[in-house]
Design a protein that fits this description.
Low-confidence stretches of chain A: 1-5, 7-23
Radius of gyration of chain A: 22 Å
CATH architecture of the largest domain in chain A: 3-Layer(aba) Sandwich
Structural class of chain B: mainly alpha
Low-confidence stretches of chain B: none
Strand content of chain A: 5-15%
Largest sheet of chain A: 7 strands, mixed
Radius of gyration of chain B: 21 Å
Order of helices and strands of chain B: HHHHHHEEEHHHHEHHHH
Number of domains of chain A: 2
Order of helices and strands of chain A: HEHEHHHEEHEHHEHEHEHEHHHHEHEEEH
Distance between the termini of chain B: 15 Å
Structural class of chain A: alpha/beta
Number of helices of chain B: 14
Shape of chain B: globular
Largest sheet of chain B: 2 strands, antiparallel
Mean pLDDT of chain A: 86
CATH class of chain B: Mainly Alpha
Strand content of chain B: under 5%
CATH topology of chain B: ABC transporter involved in vitamin B12 uptake, BtuC
Helix content of chain B: over 70%
CATH class of the largest domain in chain A: Alpha Beta
Oligomer: heterodimer
Chain lengths: 430, 358
């Protein structure tokens, strides 16, 4: 018994010391969801993110000579678990990647106190773009309002919107309601009729009531703000009710290959706005394949790697890695602090040249951030489902920044007032 | 041995009916209270406060409220989360409409609103019983969550439809909102939970508690011996909803910091019902034991592999966690169907007569 105890203690001690040795480097936890109702859409994103960091570690020995300790904390997309993960990781973390609008809303007010940057690429709260107010939050490269604006601009190219009827099918959740203020404003200005149709969390898989309403209303277009099981539900229902697919457009989270594969050819013409696009010939894909996939360090598979979501995961990690690199250069040291990383994320400059250096040409539009602009407003493409995969259906479309920035400033101010005392960045003079 | 009651003589009815007829019970409680009031706050990390101490207390309080209704008065309710929501939204409206209001007063007062709503939805209990009543409370659950979503005034027409807790001060210290420290929030929760627990213990031991138990055990017999069923059932709904409403206000204001309507949906109701059932219906202690098992244990299990240095992915831990907690629930319910509180009572009884088996 005594020997056994001794062995057990030795093993535990060794293991604990082993982990501390392993944990050296920059700790960038990801609040992942590989379990729960949203796992199907989460897994390719998480794999892409993890693989990019593993690739950097294997190819370059990390960033600036420091290994990246990319760790996942499982949330199952539950806000409660998300907060648990946030509390668990915030001691060492240089960044928080909350991965759900609910968790973002929960963590956002604490950002000024804990002083850890929140990186929420393409999700979260649209007014986070106002970097003076939301000093610690980043939603690069596009906010939901930008996404809505790009969709409207694309539709305008197809013909004048005045007098048209647009149904807005959305998840009845903070995420789904995000673009409403912008869409309402535009509906008034451009003279189209907006019909918001909420889908409750419990009705995601059975949307017959919503589609009955769509059939009755006969909208010219359906804009969909869906996530997880809602997308597949809406797309199959649209096919069933014979809604013309080319008039249905989704947000970037509603452009998941697996959701469309269920309907295959029948889904032809469905569109989704996106700020990322898979480029199988990009050098970065070859590097990931060589250093991560072939080395057996990944959980992904060949089919998943072709998809939009996996490559979006790569882009998200590339944004973080670039932020770290910029911060290291500015701080003059490799072991950066959360505050350094904030500077890095505020000074991103993804030019065409830089994207080429990173081997990511065509995978994300060029954009740059500043202390007052935490989004970058890169613009996006409209992707179209051709029956077996997503293809680009438009050139880069830029969002309508005038109306959006007005809305952003007003909403950010409202948020700051409601949460007073809320420190703003006084040094930022842009 | 430790629980020997030899030599503790009761010479009056008062002593015999006291809260702690056995001295060791009082001693044990004193130790637990010392831990809760002094030792935990001194030792706990931010993580322990936010994921263990505060949520366990709040969930235990919510389960306590439900236990009054279901365990003591025998009225099955599936609408606990909705009543918590009423408390949370009432508190939110009060602090945003009247920013000068003391936050603790607002939290305690928000229970009054949920008590009112609870009584309104409790009226059907005068005619329907058992599972049929459960369906009526289910209606409250769906209706109230729908109301939280649709009634913009409740969340001050916020675009995201969620409520955000503002920074609230009391005597120059932040007690709620992002600026508040976990220690302060813990103490606020602890004070309120202690007070309400004390209140509930005494209520259930007194006249009202006895009428509830009579109603629960056989309502026709209770009516025949002169108990006013309407009064008994509605007071149970009122007291229960009050406690649940305060727990809801604490849930959002002292812990979560923000809430969207679907937070108060049926999964939360079930979670609290499970805490009450596994802890033990008709007991006060059980709510705490149940909350420790359902809320606290998964958090501890989640941190174990990392603390032991076992390299295992976070998603696998989550799967294992669900399996372990699930089998523990089944295990406890098989060895003692009346819940953890009954299990403790049996252990205590055995200790008192130790070393004799009977």
């Amino acid at each position: 018994m005594k020997t056994f105890t001794r062995i057990a203690v030795a093993a535990t001690l060794g293991a604990v010391m082993g982990t501390t040795a392993m944990a050296e480097g920059l700790y960038t936890p990801n609040l992942a969801y590989r379990t729960g109702p949203f796992a199907a859409t989460g897994i390719p994103l998480m794999n892409g993110q993890a693989d990019y960091m593993s690739m950097l570690n294997a190819r370059d020995g990390g960033i600036g000579g420091v290994m990246i300790d990319f760790d996942e904390c499982e949330t199952g997309y539950s806000t409660e678990k998300g907060v648990e993960c946030y509390e668990k990781t915030k001691g060492k973390a240089i960044v928080t990647q909350p991965w759900s609008t609910g968790i973002t809303l929960q963590v956002l007010p604490k950002s000024n106190v804990d002083e850890i940057p929140i990186l929420a690429p393409g999700y979260g709260f649209s007014p986070m773009a106002d970097g003076k107010v939301f000093q610690w939050a980043f939603n690069t490269p596009l906010s939901y309002w930008d996404g809505a604006s790009i969709i409207l601009k694309y539709l305008e190219e197809q013909g004048d919107l005045s007098g048209k009827k647009i149904a807005f099918l959305h998840l009845d959740h903070p995420f789904g309601k995000e673009p409403l203020p912008y869409l309402e404003k535009k509906a008034e200005a451009q003279g189209f009729e907006l019909v918001p149709i909420p889908v409750g969390l419990k009705e995601m898989q059975n949307q017959s009531a919503q589609w009955l309403q769509i059939r009755r209303e006969r909208p010219d277009y359906v804009i969909m703000w869906g996530w997880g099981a809602m997308n597949a539900g809406a797309i199959t229902e649209a096919v069933k009710t014979k809604f013309p697919m080319e008039n249905m457009l989704g947000v970037w989270w509603a452009g998941h290959d697996a959701d469309l594969k269920i309907v295959g050819e029948d889904g032809k013409g469905y569109k989704s706005v996106s700020w990322s696009f898979p480029n199988p010939d990009a050098p970065v894909m070859a590097d990931v394949k060589q250093h991560v996939i072939d080395a057996g360090k990944s959980q992904t598979n060949e089919e998943e790697m072709q998809g939009v979501f996996y490559s979006r995961g790569l882009v998200i990690s590339a944004i973080l890695a670039e932020g770290i690199a910029v911060a290291q250069e500015h701080a003059g040291k490799a072991e950066i602090s959360p505050a350094d990383l904030r500077w890095g994320l505020e000074n991103l400059n993804f030019t065409e040249e830089r994207l080429e250096e990173l081997g990511m040409t065509g995978m994300v539009p060029p954009f740059s951030t500043s202390c007052s602009n935490h989004t970058g407003h890169s613009g996006g493409w409209i992707l179209e489902w051709d029956g077996s995969k997503f293809v680009k259906a438009s050139d880069l479309i830029m969002p309508d920044s005038e109306v959006i920035s007005e809305l952003e400033t007003a909403s950010a101010q409202e948020y700051a007032d409601a949460n007073a005392p809320w420190p703003v960045n006084e040094d930022c003079e842009m | 041995m430790l629980y020997r009651t030899a030599g503790q003589f009761k010479t009056s009815y008062k002593a015999d009916q006291a809260l702690f007829p056995v001295r060791q019970d009082a001693f044990l409680l004193a130790v637990i209270l010392a831990f809760a009031w002094v030792i935990f706050p001194l030792m706990a990390s931010e993580f322990a406060f936010q994921t263990l101490l505060i949520p366990i207390l709040i969930y235990a309080l919510a389960a306590l409220g439900l236990n009054i209704l279901t365990g003591y008065a025998g009225q099955l309710s599936l609408g606990t989360a909705a009543f918590m929501g009423v408390g949370a939204y009432a508190c939110y409206k009060m602090v945003t409409l009247m920013p000068w209001l003391n936050p603790v007063v607002a939290i305690l007062f928000s229970g009054v609103f949920s008590a009112g709503v609870g009584v309104a939805f409790g009226i059907p209990s005068l005619r329907i019983k058992g599972f049929y009543l459960a369906i009526a409370t289910l209606a409250a659950q769906f209706f109230l969550v729908w109301l939280f979503e649709k009634w913009g005034w409740l969340y001050n027409y916020n675009a995201s439809g969620a409520i955000q807790v503002p920074n609230l001060e009391m005597f120059g210290v932040y007690v709620a909102g992002p600026q508040a420290s976990s220690t302060v929030q813990y103490y606020v929760v602890l004070v309120i939970v202690t007070l309400l627990t004390l209140l509930c213990i005494n209520l259930t031991r007194g006249n009202l508690g006895r009428t509830w138990k009579a109603t629960r055990d056989m309502d026709i017999a209770a009516e025949l011996i002169g108990i006013n069923l309407m009064r008994s059932k509605l007071t149970a709904f009122a007291v229960s909803s009050y406690v649940v409403g305060v727990a809801g206000a604490l849930f959002v204001f002292m812990w979560r910091g923000a809430a969207e309507p679907n937070l108060f949906d049926i999964p939360l109701s079930f979670r609290i019902l499970f805490i009450a059932i596994i802890g033990g219906l008709g007991s006060i202690l059980g709510n705490y034991l149940g909350a420790i098992l359902i809320v606290g244990l998964p958090v501890v299990l989640n941190t174990l592999p990392e603390a032991l240095g076992i390299p295992i992915s976070s998603a696998t831990v989550e799967h294992l966690n669900i399996m372990i907690v699930g089998s523990l629930i089944i295990f406890f319910l098989i060895i003692e169907p009346h819940g953890l509180a009954r299990l403790w009572a049996l252990i205590r009884e055995k200790l008192i007569i130790w070393p004799f088996p009977h």
